[in-house]
Design brief:
The protein is α+β, with helices and mostly antiparallel strands. Among the domains are: 201 residues, no CATH class; 246 residues, no CATH class; 120 residues, Immunoglobulin-like (Sandwich), CATH 2.60.40. It has 33 helices and 20 strands. Strands 13-14-20-16-17 form a five-stranded antiparallel β-sheet, with no helix packed on it. Strands 10-15-19-18 form a four-stranded antiparallel β-sheet, with no helix packed on it. It has a three-stranded mixed β-sheet with strand order 7-8-9. Helix 6 packs antiparallel against helix 7 and helix 10 packs antiparallel against helix 11. The longest helix has 34 residues.
Length: 829
């Protein structure tokens, strides 16, 4: 048994070694510093503490934007048992090692399903996992995006196996791969990959129709559809809650009738075009997938002490530190951590595969690469992207079109390893290989030579940030231009050199100057060196820190400690020492009015754009902003806001409005302590209510999911609560009797409270979570049952296989009959 498993164990062992070497500081107990993960730790801290103390899942958090569901923050307990598999990589192995192991295992499974040459399967899996685009995203903390892309291998394996080999086995693999992908919860990457599957489905349909076997298409197609539904059912809890929340978020239907800001989504279905397209690739950014430094690399690109940029900064009296970095990036993006580089060697064999006549799946992969690159250009290819943005369902819910190159980084290595495997296994005619190889080499070589020597004549190499450097720091920006030109030249020649060596190795093999083993070794070294060397520009041991140093990111300042000493159960804070609506780290300590999230509640976003950003203190007061943190002469201090209205209060009069626009406009000049703005949709609720403001209302118990108040008044009152209005899931009761509540002041909750002493309870119990969790558990159990069936069948087949090295016994040839032998002797005579 062990002997039969040795090849797989060896491959997995190599993957673990590569992951351990690349991220070796993790083995030393250090932690990777990822900006987005620091943000996430801040925004999810309240939920994590609640889970640790009670064992329950926080479904609501007040950590950001006055309160929001945790569905897109930290919904860990959702019933999906696939989470147990992910626990192995995320927590037992730990990130970031666990991430690239997922990538290598997933891609390796795909190559084995495609029956590629064994060693190129290993090389391809390592190369794909180390694709610089993925590694740079890991450095930035886009963990869910990277894992979603890494899982495309096993997802694709299921589809191809279903159509080409066994529809049932393939569907089971697909259900698990897609289910895992959906569980990771990066719907943007899953959606983009789904667009490419439309191309694959069309190609398969055409092929079966052309062969007159359309019935053979129906069974795997239907089984994969069922598998996709099963995969989705395993994540019903996450999908249902997200769908429900999306209607009230920035990604949902418009609330307001006019648009007040460029980045607003108030008046459009989904996201505003300008907001969604801010991160759009330019032509030069697309070319960086082939030549990594062609657009200057990253906004913090490593520079040598001999560079002109370094010298220019020194002359300006600025120290770039022990490992100098500067903003050499000059492409179309606002800024970037580094290029979406796919690998020079991979791209050469990708192009060669497209040119060769019989390369498998080349039309699907080639069309997918073209589609994703065109979509990545966003507003810089507006005529094309407008079609998808305006007419494709859900497409306009996503921002940053450049991120689709993460899907491109899966397809280019895939066709490259298919091509290399076909060459090694003798599936390509050598004459055709030499002829098409010359064309591929001519194309890529010509591109490299053009940018190396002619590029400076066609580009100005300037960036929008250069003017700021020149005016603010008196930097000679000609130095930046010179280093950008130098980087384009050197990386163009680097790409050319790698491709020449790769092409030369294949040519030597066709001339029988080297054998397959030497060719594999050379290509493996080239591919891994290509990726590794670019990765190390952006991820080194400096990206890690000892655990004690890492935790210093969450050490409270004196101002934080002063606020935390307040015994009040629940209040909010505005931190002006950072960008208040672009930073979630302060949420580690405080319940913020600001924060950072790409899908905040639409009403919260409207308040920010139209009132808070305009300095409307009344809105901050009604949101119970008890403290603000500011810089005062270089010292961070906490200031108390005497106008904060507390957790709840009674009002003396109501102003009725007839539209959402009137509702939000009425907040200008509002005294929220006395007057409430109520939309006409709630006219029946407030009918007959006569207000005579008296009495008290006070918060007695606080937890993310439950708020308990005590009220005491001589007459019926309208209570306003400093909590964000979100209709699905919030249930209110007075003395355990369920009642309705309404919206007031555009974004807050309001409730009719009868005279006397009462206990008011708000509970967040979304049915989408409770029912969805049950469905998720059932769906994931069915997927694991399918995997059990698959493994059992494979085990039975495995048992019947001969051990490695033992020849397969062939049936003995029948001995010739004597009569036949005598006839032959007579003929000889």
């Amino acid at each position: 048994m062990i002997k039969r498993l040795m090849p797989l164990l060896m491959a997995f062992g190599l993957f673990i070694v590569v992951a351990a070497i690349f991220f070796y500081p993790q083995l030393q107990g250090q932690r990777m510093i990822q900006s987005d993960i620091l943000m996430h730790k801040g925004m999810s801290h309240e939920s994590a503490v609640f889970k640790e103390n009670t064992g329950d899942q926080a479904l609501w958090t007040n950590s950001m934007f006055g309160g929001m569901p945790t569905y897109q923050v930290s919904l860990a307990d959702n019933g999906n048992l696939i989470s147990k598999v992910h626990w192995i990589f995320a927590y037992l192995v730990g990130y970031p090692m666990g991430m690239i192991l997922i990538g290598m295992f997933s891609f390796f499974i795909l190559t084995r399903v495609l029956e590629l040459e064994f060693w190129i399967s290993i090389i391809g899996a390592i190369g794909f996992a180390l694709t610089s685009n993925n590694i740079i995203l890991i450095e930035a903390g886009h963990n869910t995006k990277v894992v979603a892309v890494y899982l495309l291998g096993i997802t694709t394996a299921g589809i191809l196996h279903a159509f080409k080999k066994n529809w049932l086995e393939g569907s089971i693999i697909f259900a698990f791969g897609l289910g895992y992908n959906i569980y990771i919860n990066h719907p943007q990457m899953t959606y983009y990959f789904g667009l490419t599957l439309l191309i694959l489905g069309g190609i398969f349909l055409y092929e079966y129709w052309k062969e007159g076997t359309i019935k053979k298409f129906i069974k795997p197609a239907l089984s994969l559809i069922v598998a996709a539904l099963l995969a989705a059912s395993a994540q019903t809890c996450g999908l249902w809650t997200t769908y429900e929340y999306s209607k009230s978020s920035m990604r949902g239907a418009p609330i307001l009738t006019t648009q007040n800001a460029e980045t607003s989504s108030s008046a459009v279905e989904g996201l505003d075009w300008q907001y969604a397209m801010q991160w759009s690739n330019g032509f030069i950014d697309v070319m960086a997938g082939f030549i990594p430094g062609i657009a200057g690399g990253g906004s913090q690109e490593p520079v040598s002490t001999n560079s002109e940029t370094y010298q220019a900064f020194r002359q300006a009296g600025l120290d770039l530190g022990r490992n100098p970095k500067a903003s050499l990036y000059w492409g179309a993006l606002p800024f970037t951590s580094g290029p979406a580089y796919f690998g020079s060697v991979f791209l050469f064999f990708f192009l060669l595969g497209m040119l060769l006549k019989n390369t498998r799946f080349k039309w699907w992969i080639g069309a997918s690469v073209l589609l994703t690159l065109m979509l990545s250009m966003g507003k810089n290819l507006e005529w094309f992207n407008r079609i998808f943005f305006d007419y494709f369902p859900v497409f306009n819910k996503f921002r940053a079109p450049s991120s689709i190159t993460s899907v491109t980084s899966f397809f280019i290595p895939l066709l490259a390893v298919i091509t290399i495997s076909d060459i090694i296994m003798g599936k390509v005619d050598r004459k055709e290989l030499i002829a098409k190889g010359k064309i591929a080499l001519g194309v890529v070589g010509g591109v490299c030579l053009f940018f190396a020597f002619m590029g400076p004549n066609f580009f100005d190499f300037t960036s929008l940030g250069d003017a700021r450097l020149a005016s603010q720091y008196r930097i000679n920006t000609n130095a930046l231009v010179a280093d950008r030109q130098s980087l384009m030249n050197s990386d163009s020649l680097r790409t050319l050199g790698l491709i020449l060596v790769a092409a030369g190795a294949v040519w030597a093999w066709t001339k029988q100057m080297i054998n397959e083993k030497v060719l594999l070794a050379l290509l493996g070294i080239l591919i891994i060196y290509d990726m590794w060397s670019i990765d190390r520009r952006y991820v080194t041991e400096e990206n890690f820190a000892p655990a004690t140093q890492y935790e210093q990111n969450f050490t409270p300042r004196q101002a934080d400690q002063q606020i935390l000493a307040d015994p009040d159960l629940h209040y909010r804070v505005m931190d002006y020492t950072t960008s208040p609506f672009q930073d979630a780290k302060p949420a580690y300590f405080h319940k913020l009015i600001g924060g950072y999230h790409g899908a905040k509640l639409q009403r919260a976003n409207d308040l920010i754009e139209r009132h808070i950003s305009q300095g409307n203190q009344a809105v901050l007061n009604m949101l119970n902003m008890k403290y603000q943190i500011i810089n005062n002469g270089g010292q961070v201090i906490a200031q108390r806001n005497p106008g904060a209205l507390g957790n709840a209060w009674f009002v003396s009069n109501i102003q009725n409005v007839n539209s959402a626009q009137e509702e939000i406009d009425a907040l200008n000049g509002l005294d929220p302590s006395n007057r409430a703005i109520v939309h006409s949709e709630f006219a029946d609720y407030i009918a007959g209510l006569t207000l005579n403001k008296n009495g008290t209302i006070q918060l007695m118990e606080y937890s993310p999911n439950t708020l308990v108040y005590k009220s005491n008044s001589n007459s019926e009152q309208l209570a306003i609560f400093s909590e964000m209005w979100y209709e699905p899931g919030w249930e209110v009761s007075i003395d355990d009797q369920p009642l309705d509540h309404i919206r007031a002041n555009y974004a807050l909750r309001a409730l009719r409270v009868p005279a006397g002493q009462h206990t008011i309870t708000f509970d967040f119990r979304p049915k989408s979570y409770t029912a969805g969790k049950t469905i998720s558990m059932t769906g994931s159990l069915l997927i694991f049952a399918g995997l059990g069936f698959l493994f059992y069948n494979r085990y039975q087949d495995f048992q019947q296989m001969p051990p490695p090295g033992k020849p397969v016994e062939k049936p003995a040839k029948p001995k010739p009959r004597a009569t036949t032998a005598r006839k032959k002797k007579k003929k000889k005579k």
